[in-house]
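On clarity, I found the account of how folds are encoded harder to follow than it need be. What matters is that the chain and its backbone geometry are given together, residue for residue. I therefore recommend that a typical entry be quoted early in the introduction. An entry of this sort, consisting of the sequence and the corresponding backbone structure tokens, reads as follows:
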Amino acid sequence: MKFNRIAKVFGYMYQLHRRNFKLYFKHIHDPLHEPVVTNSIHWVGHATVVINLNDKIIVTDPVTSKNLGQIKRLVKPSLNLSKINIDYILLSHGHMDHMNYSTLRKINKDAIVIAPENLIFSLKILGFKNIIILTHNQIYNDNYIKIKALEANHDGKRYPWEASAESNSYVIERCSRKVFFAGDTAYTDEYRDLIADVAIMPVGCYKPDEFQNLHCSPEQSFKMFKMMNAKIMIPIHYKTYILAQDDDEVTNQTLKKINDGSIKIIDIGQTVKLENSK
């Protein structure tokens, strides 16, 4: 039994590195470059989005590196985050494709960073001064924004040998608008009846099937979205890196097949304008 498991892990690693090795002989694609405007959501790539709520700038899981170790980026980041004055940084968890040190080093250090507890030491080393630690169901409030952390179904430890760590999802509220950012999560009922204008949902890294203990499939992501009271779903966490055995084109076709009009399928570099709240 143990041998079968080891063989399966080696088989997965072989396929992952084989697919990534082929990318070194291919051109990295250019993204769209739609502008970030007041009250909008802009997809930079993977789980990195720039959210503008009444001209306060929130960035989620900033990762703009061309490589994650030996893994090459498929599409260039649409924005240089070091050129933007960021007000808030939301970190869902410590995995390298969500917390990227080289990206964080270049971001303005006066930004308020909201993160799970296990990331505080790394954030201090990186030079951030305004670090807010939130655990599940805790809320950060200031004169401009309200941010609530929810429990994601995902182990947020950075390295395999570390103890299990929390992963957060976030509800971001400003001036009567609400945006939900799921981060990474497997299927969960945690978001049932959640109210939001937009739900930013992960749809990648779900193959082989064992990965669904940590990541949701597109169908599961959509099912969680339908549990909410949210107007539209924006799929992310694909089209940027090859991190598992799922195929982005298959994911895209699945999203189109299940779309009832409430999924806003976008490309990297595209901006979605938020409707006026009623």
